[in-house]
């Protein structure tokens, strides 16, 4: 696909909208009109400002068929730039809908955090006008608009718990037993990286200690702790205890309101590991079946079975965990509406405190896409997502956080559901950028937030464990930026 951008700076949004309709196409963005429109899909978006108004045009040619839509924007309108971008997106969306015949439920909205936008609009204009804007201007469906409102309301209550001096701690464990076919994250299978893990844990503990000193010197308040990956439960019980003890010694945990370990794969969960988690005061874990369809599990490269998930969940209950989240993915290979419905039956029987429903994302570097499996028709995925929403709400789960990824099947969303009072707080604090996140480990990204404002600054650790190990001193040097950042603010 060729995307020709003529006299405007909205190429990022237009590219994202093109990807909604053609997720597998390589998109070449150009400002050079001399490039011939020989691609099977050619898109031209242009802006021409006159004396009193601006002409916005979108033209889409797919093979021998084309459509063009032109609109005008008054030059003296408030938020002129934003209005031009919106009108251009509407025109491009209209061309695609007429040529492809596919109306997406999120309309022209391609942002990661729809509920954040909804909250902003509610604060500015009230709920009814915010909903009207979503539906009339952004072309979002009635159902997705209501979802955005529900999540926005939940998030608002939880965001109020954050204070200017608050922060969260993220612990990165970028190792997995095997690599799933849909995965594009920087994580290493244990077959490749097992020898790195002991040294990685040693250095991780040093980084935790160094970060804790910074937090204490600044007088900051730790609210939530989250181990992510990868698969944190790939660690041994001894390693979990070692990291947990280091966190307890390095940080003041007296104000921590949530301590989560994304245990992840059921086949990595043992009684010894669960007991280790309890002993370091972990309050919330994830056990992620993805599906209870064993054919799908095999197709995506998972080594566990549905029975393995049931056993791991039962073991976690026996060990006293009363806040368990379970991840599902809608749109997996070989999954059907019937098998997805069966997965929801199993969720209802287990009755976890939280369920996160992800939409399959067709990442270009994943095995699922490179092998051609990702090209399967995923037309039933929206039905799966709607089924999950309807069924989970019926049995007492409420949507409390939401985010979107590029190349999600059907341009859909990922939604966290929970029982009342069992929401994953870290998810909201991180996603809605309520406060700083101090991150440790390979691939971790420190997110520094202005205590009483909206400014965000990021500090990156090295992505790969071997880099993290070989260049560890540089990581500690980068962490000095935390104190420099906070020296500019009062909190």
Explain what the structure shows:
The protein has about 500 residues and is α/β, with parallel strands linked by helices. The chain folds into two domains: about 1-105, Maf protein; about 160-480, pyruvate-formate lyase- activating enzyme (Alpha-Beta Horseshoe). Helices cover about 40% and strands about 20% of the residues. It is built from 18 helices and 18 strands. It has helices at about 10-20, 80-100, 115-125, 125-135, 140-160, 190-195, 195-220, 235-250, 270-280, 295-300, 305-320, 335-350, 365-370, 380-395, 425-430, 465-470, 470-480, 480-485, and strands at about 1-5, 30, 40-50, 55-60, 65-75, 165-175, 175, 190, 220-230, 260-265, 285, 325-330, 355-360, 400-405, 415-420, 435-440, 445-450, 455-460. The model has no long low-confidence stretch (mean pLDDT about 90).
Q: Portion of residues in helices? A: 40-55%
- Average of the residue pLDDT scores: 92
CATH superfamily descriptor of the largest domain: tm_1862 like domain
Supply the helix-strand structural class: alpha/beta
Distance between the termini: 49 Å
How many individual helices?
18
Number of strand segments: 18
CATH fold field value of the largest domain: pyruvate-formate lyase- activating enzyme
